[in-house]
Amino acid sequence: MKLRHxxxxxxxxxxxxxxxxxxxxxxxEEADTYGKSDEKEAIATIHRSFELGEIFWILPIFTAR
Length: 65
Description:
Elements: E1 5-8, E2 13-16, E3 20-21, H1 39-51, E4 57-58
Parallel strand pairs: 3-4
Antiparallel strand pairs: 1-2
Organism: Chryseobacterium endophyticum
Protein name: Aldo/keto reductase
């Protein structure tokens, strides 16, 4: 199984039609909103998604005010 890709813009760049949301892979300020995170499982998930052709990981970025 491979992910379906689509063209982005007019310069020939292709991206997967879906991205991998990574927010639930880590805790945020000790708040386990999506349950307890498992680092080994998160890494395995990212590796498997790459094997399937994923190159678009959605990473939450939080900054202090």
